[in-house]
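Standup notes, structure subgroup. Blocker cleared on the nicotinamide-adenine-dinucleotide input:
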Amino acid sequence: MTTSAQTADTLNLFENAKLQFEQALTWIDSIKVGIIDYLISPKRTIHVRFPVNMDDGSIQTFHGFRCLHNRVRGPGKGGIRYHPDVTEAEVAALAAFMTWKTAVVDIPFGGGKGGIVCNPKELSRSELRRITRRFVMELGDTIGPHTDIPAPDVYTDQQTMAWIYDTFDLMHQGENNLAVVTGKPLEIGGSVGRDEATARGSLYATQQLIERGVVPDMRTLNGIRVAVQGYGNAGSIAAKLFHECGARIVAVSDSRGAIASDSGLDPLHVLEHKDETGSVVGFPGTTEISNEELLAYDCDILIPAALECQIHAENAADIKARLIVEDANGPITMAGDKILQEKGVVVLPDIVANAGGVVVSYFEWVQNLENQQWDLEKVDRKLRKKMNRAVDDTVDRWTALRTRHEDGFNDGNSGPTLRDAALVVAIERIATVVLQRDIWP
Ligand code: NAD
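Run returned:
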């Protein structure tokens, strides 16, 4: 059966981000029209083209972007990705996600994102170093500890962040510049706990959500069947942490395929196998399944932790999980969301579920500004507090909106989702600051 949601589906991340924002606005009864216009588009996007000496002696011109979506609550914050498919629209959508995410977890940042159109798999380390350093020089003072603070993203890592810091530091000698970038190696101002932060944050958020009774008949992770799409930083660590809490990891996947075992997988052994062979596929004692089959696998919790727009109009009806924890950014389309809502599947939205990474980036920034080094116990304790608060704020708003909906508010709509509620919390926080700061002259 084709629903109206199916016919309206789009696999474009930017379109989905815009649709999500517009839907959330229907749950806010008083916001100035001018503020909506201001929030919907990025504050600025910088394009730079720059030449780089390649290893073979040739010169190649690269195209990079840095989008600052909004900075009323603090400096821009968001990753830099290196990928052949980077576009201005994609960077703008991801920067908007960062604006909502930093607001819903209540850290003093706005949203930013950057990228360079390149294929890191075809570039040497030395070429990547020259590209990174030149990009930072081109960005100049548009990035900075109190302006816009990059972090790792797709195909950028601690080493990339070390190059960013060093280049910026050379341009601003005599100052403490550590806070210009987060996700740095521990030895130059990185924070303990940053590597696991996204997955750990999603675990804490899930625990708080089920403790609040939002998922019918799910009050503990013990014995809960979990499937994970993507076995990189977010996915493999989520599998490990959920397993440590008693969950049974019944299926996992990566770009080469998926594996399943109803008796449960040991996530660390699967990771060793992936490190040795390049893929989770072929792990002894498992059945190979397709990535589509993984999404539809018989489980209680599904954790998409790979790419955007994976659950959409064509496959959402097949999902069997009762709860989806969005470790990836934008893994469900708007049409997918509608179908899941009709089926009663609870979705813990990305701007809450995967915010642990940016929360610990915030901790790194604070430690850098104060020349401090916190221990892991302190980082994890503060992370849990932030994640619990974000879940509580989201669930409280969702509960209030549901009550109002039952009383006739926004009755053309099928009822609020947790995503709507999280976005409402974020948008209202930003709008409040816009009004308090009286930002227009
Ligand atoms: P990663 O590169 O470490 O891992 C990505 C994984 O996805 C890899 O195992 C890859 O093989 C797999 N993958 C790629 N295509 C796939 C496909 N078609 N089907 C199944 N698996 C596929 O990336 P990551 O850092 O873990 O990020 C994953 C997602 O989480 C992204 O959406 C990212 O934006 C989001 N996220 C990550 C962080 C973080 O701190 N790492 C923070 C917030 C959000």
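Discussed briefly. Residues 198, 229-235, 253-255, 291, 305-307, 327-329, 354, 357 surround nicotinamide-adenine-dinucleotide (CB under 6 Å).
Next: hand off to the docking folks.
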